[in-house]
Amino acid sequence: MLAGKVPVGSAVPPRNTAPSGKGSKVLVVNAGSSSIKFKIFTAETLLPGAAGLFDRIGDPANCVLKASVPDDGGKPKKFEKKIPAKDHLTAMQDIMSFIDENVSSTFASEVCAVGHRIVHGLDMSQPKLLTPDVIRCIQDASMFAPLHNPPHLQGIYASQKVFGPDVPQVAVFDTAFHQTMPPESYVYGLPYDMYEKHKIRRYGFHGTSHKYLVDQAAAMLGKKVSETNVITCHLGNGSSVAAVRGGQCVDTSMGMTPLEGLLMGTRCGDIDPAVVLHIQNQLGLSASETDTLLNKKSGLLGLTGSNDLRTVIEGAGKGEPRSQLGLDMFVRRVRKYIGAYMAMLDGQVDAVVFSAGIGENSALVRGLICDRMQALGIAVDKDANAAAVGGKQADISGPGARIRALVIPTDEELSIAQQTLQVVRGAALAA
Q1: What is the pLDDT of residues 142-169, one digit of tens each?
Q2: Which residues form the signal peptide (predicted)?
Q3: What CATH class does 8-173 carry?
Q4: What is the pTM of this model?
Q5: How far apart are CA 247 and CA 211, in angstroms?
Q6: Separation CA 175–CA 50 (nearest Å)
Q7: Which of 121, 170, 178, 253 is placed for a possible disulfide with 420 were both Cys, Cβ 3.0 to 4.6 Å?
Q8: Residues annotated in a binding site
Q9: Does the CA dihedral 66-39-391-347 come out positive or negative?
Q10: CB count in 10 Å sphere of residue 332
Q11: Intervals of CATH 3.30.420.40 along the chain
Q12: How many of the other CB atoms lie within 10 Å of CB of 10?
């Protein structure tokens, strides 16, 4: 049995798949190793409600619940309270108690569905109702996401325990959007049985975000999603780029794990695989130590001493050579992928989309990425770019640009809520 597995028999299968007549809320859950993020949406309108983070689960002395609850005027009221929680089940029960006291005393009966963010779903191509088979898939994928999937399972079991079998629960996979990639994009140049027998292939990540960006870009462009060709750039502490033709992903920068691709906050991104062997041989590092080096001590942090690009930009402005190198490498890698994906899309690109912490808020980085790409049809309006910060959706394209440059704030929780409702309503219609 894989580490972190919970016996499939302990799952609570949904007794019915249709939202009850009284159910009017969707709860989105993202369970980490020592945390649970949650957000409530109204099912009919998808308007957001209370949201929060239960952090440091398992550390009773420091365990804290931070939450935001809109008041009658829509303004958020902040809460922060230390609550000792020994495990995910206790934390989920405490979250429900908080909601009962500060949002609605009948919340449990108002929930029509729960949507869970799942980092790795192997070859699952759609969100799925949580059944024993889906639970087994999440368990099997733990070999590729050992830090993420086991805690997701703990969140699932806690949620099932709290809500019981009458509330349908849905798994929304970060990998699902990328399952439309053709084999030439996802198969590695290894012996074929590595893929066939061991499932070693490109999976891609941030799929929930990329899907949301494609849908929003299509709306901004006034096109059907099925007619939209875009390059989506999710740029944050973890970063990835996706090539999308006709609304479907045809390639993405992350691989079997989130380590591949762009230079990131603490991840190295693309390197010669022989570097790993060399490091292990020369430094005597174990597989675990090498994994930590590549995933947690590399990227901008390893190059500059900071994983925060804002700090790196500040250092570059002061003339610090390594900060400038880190900034240049980050920008160069994104430009490289955009150029490659333009070729993959035969030059038929409607827009390049920027999102996530860096993509939404750094006009400097967006400008540097798009600089000198006029020959490819990309140009940025300086004033529009400078104004597009702080969560604003904007078209920052310059005059005469053939390819639009768009800034779209991502909303993964909303996307999970949307997909959860689609699954539950689809199951209800099929029943």
Answers
A1: 988 888 899 999 999 999 999 988 899 9
A2: none
A3: alpha beta
A4: 0.88
A5: 8
A6: 27
A7: 170
A8: 30, 37, 117, 234-238, 308-310, 357-361, 412
A9: positive
A10: 13
A11: 8-173, 223-412
A12: 12
